[in-house]
Specification:
The structure is a homopentamer.
Chain A (H helix, E strand, L loop, with lengths): L30 E7 L4 E5 L4 H4 L7 E7 L4 H11 L3 H8 L6 E4 L4 E11 L4 E11 L3 E6 L7 H9 L3 H4 L2 H36 L4 H33 L7 H66 L15 H22 L4
Parallel strand pairs in A: 3-7
Antiparallel strand pairs in A: 1-2, 1-3, 4-5, 5-6, 6-7
Helix pairs in contact in A: 2-3, 6-7, 6-8, 7-8, 8-9
Amino acid sequence: MTESLTKPSDKSGMRPGSLVHVGEVLESETRMTVIDYSKESVEQTQFQSIEEILKYKDCESVTWVVIEGLTGVDIIESIGKNFGIHQLVLEDILNTHQRPKFEEYDDHLYIVLKCLLSEVEPFTVSYEQVSLLVLRSFVFLFKEKTDDLFQPVMKRVNNSKGRFRSLGADYLAYAILDTIVDQNFFLIDSMDEAITTLEDSLIASEPTQDTLNTIQKLRRDIVSIRRHVSPVRELMTAMLHCESELIDQKTHIYLRDVSDHAIRVIELVELYRDILTGLLDIYLSSVSNKMNEVMKVLTVFASIFIPLTFLVGIYGMNFEYMPELKWKWVYPMLWVVFFTVPVVFLIYFKRKKWL
Amino acid sequence: MTESLTKPSDKSGMRPGSLVHVGEVLESETRMTVIDYSKESVEQTQFQSIEEILKYKDCESVTWVVIEGLTGVDIIESIGKNFGIHQLVLEDILNTHQRPKFEEYDDHLYIVLKCLLSEVEPFTVSYEQVSLLVLRSFVFLFKEKTDDLFQPVMKRVNNSKGRFRSLGADYLAYAILDTIVDQNFFLIDSMDEAITTLEDSLIASEPTQDTLNTIQKLRRDIVSIRRHVSPVRELMTAMLHCESELIDQKTHIYLRDVSDHAIRVIELVELYRDILTGLLDIYLSSVSNKMNEVMKVLTVFASIFIPLTFLVGIYGMNFEYMPELKWKWVYPMLWVVFFTVPVVFLIYFKRKKWL
Amino acid sequence: MTESLTKPSDKSGMRPGSLVHVGEVLESETRMTVIDYSKESVEQTQFQSIEEILKYKDCESVTWVVIEGLTGVDIIESIGKNFGIHQLVLEDILNTHQRPKFEEYDDHLYIVLKCLLSEVEPFTVSYEQVSLLVLRSFVFLFKEKTDDLFQPVMKRVNNSKGRFRSLGADYLAYAILDTIVDQNFFLIDSMDEAITTLEDSLIASEPTQDTLNTIQKLRRDIVSIRRHVSPVRELMTAMLHCESELIDQKTHIYLRDVSDHAIRVIELVELYRDILTGLLDIYLSSVSNKMNEVMKVLTVFASIFIPLTFLVGIYGMNFEYMPELKWKWVYPMLWVVFFTVPVVFLIYFKRKKWL
Amino acid sequence: MTESLTKPSDKSGMRPGSLVHVGEVLESETRMTVIDYSKESVEQTQFQSIEEILKYKDCESVTWVVIEGLTGVDIIESIGKNFGIHQLVLEDILNTHQRPKFEEYDDHLYIVLKCLLSEVEPFTVSYEQVSLLVLRSFVFLFKEKTDDLFQPVMKRVNNSKGRFRSLGADYLAYAILDTIVDQNFFLIDSMDEAITTLEDSLIASEPTQDTLNTIQKLRRDIVSIRRHVSPVRELMTAMLHCESELIDQKTHIYLRDVSDHAIRVIELVELYRDILTGLLDIYLSSVSNKMNEVMKVLTVFASIFIPLTFLVGIYGMNFEYMPELKWKWVYPMLWVVFFTVPVVFLIYFKRKKWL
Amino acid sequence: MTESLTKPSDKSGMRPGSLVHVGEVLESETRMTVIDYSKESVEQTQFQSIEEILKYKDCESVTWVVIEGLTGVDIIESIGKNFGIHQLVLEDILNTHQRPKFEEYDDHLYIVLKCLLSEVEPFTVSYEQVSLLVLRSFVFLFKEKTDDLFQPVMKRVNNSKGRFRSLGADYLAYAILDTIVDQNFFLIDSMDEAITTLEDSLIASEPTQDTLNTIQKLRRDIVSIRRHVSPVRELMTAMLHCESELIDQKTHIYLRDVSDHAIRVIELVELYRDILTGLLDIYLSSVSNKMNEVMKVLTVFASIFIPLTFLVGIYGMNFEYMPELKWKWVYPMLWVVFFTVPVVFLIYFKRKKWL
């Protein structure tokens, strides 16, 4: 089954409200980066404990804290304490089986969604949960793995001269969401490639049970992708309708853009689902056609030779009184029959388009 | 059929408003436990009659009454009388064919839902109806069986020093609901296992009618599970939108969490439904492929040997005038033919990928 | 087709507003009963003309008028005139092809729905339309047949000492609706039985075209049942949302209960629909498996004997120069071959699980 | 394809706002009738030019103008000018590829819908577009053909003494809509008949490709009917929600009735769609069963005679050393075998229910 | 895959807000036309730089700027600067993978949709993205290709004496939208033709794998068309509900008309989807029937000749004691059998409708 299905229930029965990491551990250590920027300056450093970033708390500047790897439960607890994050949010950050959602609290917003990463050969999808905590001038980003997913955003912060750094934490959140949603287009490209390969193999060669298994695998992947992608639509809608002052009115236009992309992704996923269903039909019908062809070969052979065999059987009988046996021209005549019958049948079958 | 389908109508035609137990009796005797707790103290005892718990009625402390087994109609009647519960609610508690629902009354809330329990080998699901009555400082819990389902919650009440015991009856209700909903994840784990087993057997060996029956059984189980699980979503929504002062505003956040879990369960159930439909496709196509293979074997044999049999039939004829019969080299030549024809055919079939 | 599909259009093209009975006549004569009750007294009599019941019009007591058989057009016309019922309502009462609906008028409520009656062996469903007119202290009930459907309600009115008789016309309407909706559970029981029988026969014996016809018949029954049952949900919702003062606030709780039952019926019907679709899959796949089995038998026979027949054909040829014919050990050797070949094939087919 | 699909785009690319007839011309000449009625008097005449009816413009009486045949573009243009009808409405009247819709303008209402006419043997559906313009005391009715569809309504106007003629233009509009919607029930009756015939032929005789084509044709008809019928529901809803004073409050109850009928028609159409899908299943499965039967016959023959043929082949060999050939009782024994083997096989196949 | 699926993600990961052309380049150079018109005068010229059109900015007249080809990024940037267009809108214009949408800004409206162009033989669909910027007295139209799509609208502007030129920019926008939406009807005509051809070939001749591929191709085309067409409905709704004063109240009626056409297109697309699904059913069933026919031929041949071959095999045995061999009448008798058996079988198969 897909990653998020195995052991989704590690915590069930436990006291709600206890902070534990739930889900597969993808990274054993935690890498923490902080980027503090204002229009004038940028500062990017790695840090080890939450105390190091508390100094940014009273600045006007926007502070982006990236925490990669979710094993440092104490760090998350400490963030919760220092920034007044609700206990359930902290639990949700640590539980990597979340459904994409947006939650509005008095002084922070919580966004969680899945980043979908794909590999081409063979086509596989992996999921990474990304949680965002948006405060007035702080954005906390929690990821499962240490990878370079958000390098482009970091570069933009570092290189931007004007616009980006003059905008608030909400614009940063937008840039992050945009990156995650647009990541899906890469996934869809890979999927497109996988499906095209499958399609070609379906038309070119004989369908095998493997083809079916691949179709089935892709269908399941799509079902799983859809499950992770479609709630993003609601998430964006909820975000657009939320009236928190943490999101500036100007940022709405950008969020609407992300929302449009999300809808497009969902529609593309649906499209591929339809295409795969079509491929399954082609596969099944192609199996059927194959069998039809096999049957025709059998029938052609049997129809031609079974009557002839009967004929030669007749003159293999040992009756004493069989006058034909003595007639000279019967045997050559039979040879004429042996050649005529198949020709007649072949013409007949040709007409019926069996050959 | 599933448990809740047989005899759902024992009571139809009867006077609405009469208290009778409707449904299969799962437990012949009733076990009653009361846990009274406040921030300072906890007290847990078994009791026999309702009078024993009336003393808690005027306390500030939260009183949790657990009634396991639904045969004690008089007890439920007496609770109704002493705590002013609506007659229809009492009937619903006793009728174990309820649809999950939430009802708001002036001074009590009524919640009923199904707890889904599963066994792994073979995968079976059983249903237990759980009713909750939430009053200002009382929570009544009615179960069909005496089991340890809520032991963890009881432990938390007993062991909690701070938070839990300082919160009201609504938080207790939340903890109970959370336990029931999270129970579903265990079920889904079992189902995952059953489906994986099925999948492996489908790929490994020849599909049998049994495989189909198993797929069919699982599909029916899922239909039945979905029927019990999907109303939980509405239930939670209704609860979140209810404006009763019996639910504290702070508890809403927790209920939202339960609601999220419920949605996730429903989505997982849908996912498995899709997967099972896919398995059915694989099964059917695999039957088709098998038949194709059988046909190919038949056709290969028939195409090779039927013409040859005809050939030998010719020279088994007893005509007097058959000059070939006297030629010495014909017989060896025929042996050459006997070996060449199959080889040619085999190459031909190999090319057509029939072998 | 089902009863309500034949001739649904008897009246189309006619002047709207003319009172005629539309639909199949199920009962040629009309039986009219009136039950007048208040807390203190009950009075039940048969009557012949509307004038006899006009005396109850000014009483405080609740008057329940039951009219069984819809041929007495003049009676309905006279009720319309005497109690100020809208012309369209009168037409609807007489037209037994109504869709379940609830209509609110200034001083009366009109409810029409189908009562579903079933027979077990063979499973058949019949439909009876029941119309309810609820006035301040009058309830008119129109049925198509004279049967004992509402005997239990009548008994309750007669026997009740306290509650029932002290409640108004709206509670009586509730009791009637409750009886009709709960009647569906009997139907579902019968359907359950029919499906279980079908299921058993499907597993036990070879599927026949009959099995398919039964499945198809049941599916159509379910489609038809669903058509009659699902509008009841809207009907109840409309009733719950109506603000007519003819329905007491207290009765709402009871109506909500009926609504719950209606939803449960609809869900059960959906469930059986899914189960039947599953049975169809099993049926089709079982036909496929059967064919597969037949093909295997054919192939096993053909593969073993066709080559051997060819072999014996060789030595049936009449060539003069066939040295083997004179070798003594060839014939016994062939017998060895005759036994070895089948054994080898059988082992091979066994391995391929064809046997 | 259905009538309304061919050349739907005659006008695309043209200047919007030009009056041309779009669609197939069903009637080459235009018949115009005017009926002016008030409580006291009725007057029905044929007319040739719009000027003749302008005199009714200032009367209190209701004037019903029926225009059959849409080739008289100038007449429609002149109506538009004289009665202040919006240009787009005039275009819509002339374009017979309209979707059913209701449009509210300041001083007129525009209703367009399809009237569905059917023929029984073979079942065919034809569509006629009917446009209604409702003004204060005028109703314009535009039809494509000159037929007797609205004769019943005309008769009612002529014969009515009281009610009809005392009501306004909105009631006339209702009577027309009612006639059109109820027309659908005739259609459904014809469809019912066609489907029943199909069903009988499916059960009675061997399914042919023709049966499939008929099923397919009916399915397409239903798809097309549904397309024309389902927007009527929205149309009626829009009409019921419109607040134009052109529709009297009292007429609402009548419109609600038409709306109910429209919903019933839609539900019946859906029902027949389900039934046809079921018939397709039966058809396909019946083809499958037929093939199964054919295979069984083949297998029975082959299993019995192939081994026996092998047997007789053995003793047709010409070996010099075949001691059995000289034993007198072998030949009769073989005859015993020839009779025993088939009997054994037949019993075996009987047991397997193949015969 | 379809044009809009390949490389949809060229820009993902890039800084949002940078102006680059995303999508396939369909036209390497840009053709720019400006039409300025008022009631009195029209002026149409080609231009090279934005400066040339700035002079119209302060006129009362409506200015229509048509930009064909999207490679001139600097032109679009310059339009953005000079007319105060939002950065995201400019990006969207350049990205030809847009979903149809309508966006309302303070002083301009942005509309983007796909124009669907079709070719008949073979049926192919191509997509061109059209963006509209509507300002108070300016309309910017951005197209991917230089073609004559909007020639009719230009002609109407040039030739109109009264109405068109006296109406504002919003009416021009309507005329453009109308042209794009009505273009779809041509597409549907082509599709109709393609499907009719397919249908005829399906009925006339033997179905081939090609037929299936064509069905599949058409289904995919329809899926893709639907994806581009169905958002137009929302777009029009959004436009109708927008309260911008850039759209005059009078234009609403015209937009509603476009909306109706859009809905009709969507319904027709759905209809063809259903028809194609039906064709697939016919195809599959026709393959099945074909196989059935093949099997029957085989079975007829085998059933007739296999028993007869066995019979002649008997008298081909070389037993010394076979009295029949000496009886004179046996051989002629056998010939009678040889003719009788097939006749009997043929009659039998005729009765079973196998022939």
